[in-house]
């Protein structure tokens, strides 16, 4: 059985232009080159139009899959903090077993109550994500414990 992955990264363009899905492209390309279970994942196409609400992204995700969302990656920057939090809550409610991976520079990783404040989040990648995200996906594909992955919180 393949697992569905969706990477959310909202662009910072203020001129109404769409932005390229850089984070999606980096994570997917790196995993396809270095990952051990490439055939176990389906990378869902991201929406790249600027100004989409979390509800529109959520509806886009739901419309693309027949069964469930297995992995949600959230790339959080200062311009999309509230959207990431809202989307993670919506996904957790609809897909309770989805692995939600928080990445990007804007999560308050260094607070003691991070996982209490953001209970929807399962694991965090506070720096460059290609290596840790690849290991997360490889372990998740085999139902292995995600503890102890370098570069994660």
Q: What is the percentage of strand-forming residues?
A: 15-25%
> Mean pLDDT score, rounded?
87
Largest sheet: 5 strands, parallel
- According to DSSP, the number of beta strands is 5
**Cα end-to-end separation:** 28 Å
Helix content: 25-40%
Secondary-structure element pattern, one letter each: EHEHEHEHEH
Could you say which overall geometry the principal axes of the C-alpha atoms support?
A: globular
Strand line-up of the largest beta sheet: 2-1-3-4-5
The stretches of 5 or more residues where confidence is low (pLDDT under 50) are none
Layout of helices and strands, plus pairs?
Layout: E1 3-9, H1 22-34, E2 41-43, H2 54-64, E3 71-75, H3 81-94, E4 99-103, H4 114-117, E5 123-125, H5 130-141
Parallel strand pairs: 1-2, 1-3, 3-4, 4-5
Helix pairs in contact: 1-5, 2-3
Short characterization:
With 153 residues, the chain is α/β, with parallel strands linked by helices.
Question: Could you describe the 3D structure shown?
Answer:
The chain has 153 residues and is an alpha/beta fold. The chain contains 5 helices and 5 strands; from the N terminus they run E-H-E-H-E-H-E-H-E-H. The protein has helices at 22-34, 54-64, 81-94, 114-117, 130-141, and strands at 3-9, 41-43, 71-75, 99-103, 123-125. Helix 3 (81-94) links the parallel strand 3 and strand 4. Helix 1 (22-34) crosses helix 5 (130-141) and helix 2 (54-64) runs parallel beside helix 3. The protein is globular, with a radius of gyration of 15 Å. The chain starts with a strand and ends in a 12-residue tail after the last helix. The model has no long low-confidence stretch (mean pLDDT 87).
């Amino acid at each position: 059985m393949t697992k569905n992955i969706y990477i959310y990264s909202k662009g910072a363009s203020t001129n109404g232009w769409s932005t390229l899905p850089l984070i999606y492209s980096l994570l997917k390309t790196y995993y396809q080159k270095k990952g051990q279970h490439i055939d176990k994942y389906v990378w869902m196409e991201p929406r790249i139009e600027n100004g989409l609400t979390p509800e529109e992204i959520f509806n886009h995700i739901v419309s693309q899959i027949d069964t469930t969302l297995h992995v949600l990656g959230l790339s959080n920057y200062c311009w999309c903090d509230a959207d990431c939090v809202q989307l993670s809550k919506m996904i957790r409610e609809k897909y309770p077993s989805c692995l939600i991976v928080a990445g990007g520079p804007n999560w308050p990783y260094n607070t003691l109550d991070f996982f209490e404040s953001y209970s929807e989040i399962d694991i965090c990648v506070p720096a460059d994500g290609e290596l840790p995200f690849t290991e997360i996906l490889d372990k998740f594909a085999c139902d292995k414990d995600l503890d102890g992955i370098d570069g994660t919180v």
